[in-house]
Design a protein that fits this description.
CATH architecture: Alpha-Beta Barrel
Radius of gyration: 21 Å
Number of strands: 15
CATH superfamily: Glycosidases
CATH class: Alpha Beta
Number of helices: 16
Helix content: 25-40%
Bound molecules: beta-D-galactopyranose
Strand order of the largest sheet: 1-2-3-4-5-7-10-13
Shape: globular
Structural class: alpha/beta
Number of domains: 1
Length: about 450
């Protein structure tokens, strides 16, 4: 992608193209135990020692709960038309099921009404990783009761907000929260092992489709999608073992959740992991229920993954070769910066016959920003966005139906196990004072979107 130093403008994408910016409840809202909200798995997980950098907690975060009006003004000022945010399940249903919380419901009405007042189109994510802690006690995503709980929550949201909200995203990155939360123990709820991972995967594959069906039934004229994390997988060498390792990782990272949603079932390649997963599927007899005809597929891409064979890793027998080891340019998260790979992964997902429309529902980068004399010169982030938008335009010009691009993220926020140390925002936050400062990348977006 040689041409990404050239300036582009949003108008090259056409008038219909949707430009948005994203936040998530745990990462931004704060007010973690007030106004009737129940604890989420991130509240409890963050109390376990050693789990989150600096022992940071998502308790206050960006205080979006109280400052949503200011933040929505900033969305508007930067020129975005779409605001994607998530509903916190335990703010609506403090115990996960049963009694609803009036103050929590009223809060989301306020946010939605403010969006509509400002002419911002709300995109609501139903699950961005904050399971009610009460449900985790009963097994969380591994429980055979999970679908029942989730259906109740989704139906409630559809009935409550469906007259105002037409754009719905069912899950945020099912591979992300099942692998990090139920296999590797790095994210909430901190569970490990295949015995947790398999049922969590299967429940997530079912929940994304079931959620879609519920919204379709209850919200007239709904535009329904769900999101998938994705990364181009590159073998470290052309050795057969590395190529096969890359294939296995591609199945996990890219194919595991979209294929069931498209009605293809789980991938059927020769891979022991899939045989075991199929056992769950068979015993639960739900294959058809994993399919749903989504109006759009939300792609979330940050970096490519280079993979090498490693016989010590159970079942997967593959390991990542980090960008720093390969000495290629990378962000503060250690993630390779490679716009060409963004283009290629979009093409890979578009190659599925029944994907009708793609929206890039997250893309962005963390850097070690410095606030100097009231200014943040985040040239690297500008370059990241510029490069990735060139790659997106190329894909669009080649006929791929990409209908939108949402930047991650509006403000610096609580970045999961990185706490407040990783800054992805277009707007800087001083977490002591909650002062917001628009970064140069924010101004860059404003010019790009031409406000
Ligand atoms: C995504 C996630 C976001 C955000 C981002 C940057 O996987 O959906 O919540 O944290 O990564 O790491």
């Amino acid at each position: 992608m040689k041409d990404h130093t050239q300036k582009i403008h949003a108008s090259s994408f056409g008038d219909e193209f949707q430009w948005g910016v994203v936040i998530a409840a745990v990462q931004n809202e704060g007010a973690h135990n007030s106004y009737g909200k129940g604890p989420s798995i991130w509240d409890t997980f963050s109390r376990r020692s050693g789990k989150i950098k600096g022992s940071h907690k998502p308790y206050v975060a960006c205080d979006f709960f109280h400052r949503y009006k200011d933040d929505l003004m900033l969305v508007k000022a930067l020129g975005f038309k779409i605001f994607r945010f998530s509903i916190s399940w335990p703010r609506i249903l403090p115990e996960g099921i049963g009694k609803t919380n009036k103050e929590g419901i009223a809060f989301y009405h306020r946010v939605i009404d403010e969006c509509l007042k400002l002419d911002l189109i709300p995109y609501v994510t139903l699950y961005h990783w904050d399971l009610p802690a009460a449900l985790e006690k009963e097994g969380g995503w591994t429980s055979h009761l999970f679908l029942k709980w989730f259906s109740r929550y989704v139906s409630f949201c559809a009935e409550e907000f469906g007259s105002k909200v037409k754009n719905w995203i069912i899950l945020n990155e099912p591979f992300g929260f099942t692998s990090l939360g139920y296999m590797l123990g790095k994210h909430a709820p901190g569970k490990r092992g295949f015995n947790n991972f398999f049922p969590a995967i299967h429940n997530a594959a079912l929940a994304q489709a079931e959620g879609g069906r519920i919204i379709r039934a209850l919200v007239p004229h709904a535009h329904i999608g769900t999101t998938f994390s994705c990364s181009e997988i590159i073998p470290f060498s052309d050795k057969e073992t590395d190529v096969m390792a890359a294939k296995r990782v591609d199945i996990l990272l890219n194919r595991l959740f979209i294929e069931p949603a498209l009605g293809l079932g789980y991938p059927r390649d020769d891979f022991k992991f899939l045989e075991k997963l199929e056992l769950y599927n068979k015993s639960w007899k739900y294959t058809r229920r994993m399919q749903f005809d989504f109006d759009f597929i939300g792609l979330q891409n940050y970096f490519p993954v280079v993979v090498k064979y490693n016989s010590f890793i159970p079942m997967i027998q593959a390991m990542e070769v980090k960008a720093s080891t390969r000495k290629v340019s990378h962000s503060a998260m250690g993630w390779e910066i490679n716009p060409g790979s963004f283009y290629r992964i979009i093409k890979q997902f578009w190659s599925y016959e029944n994907v009708k429309k793609i929206i890039v529902t997250e893309n962005g980068a963390a850097f070690k920003d410095k606030l100097v004399n009231g200014e943040i010169k985040d040239d690297q982030r500008i370059d990241y966005f510029n490069g990735h938008l060139h790659a997106l335009l190329k894909a669009k010009k080649e006929g791929i139906n990409v209908a939108g691009y949402f930047a991650w993220t509006l403000t610096d926020n609580f970045e999961w196990s990185e706490g407040y140390t990783a800054r992805f925002g277009l707007i800087h936050i001083d977490f002591e004072t909650q002062l917001r400062t628009i970064k140069n990348s924010g101004y860059w977006f404003r010019d790009f979107l031409n406000v």
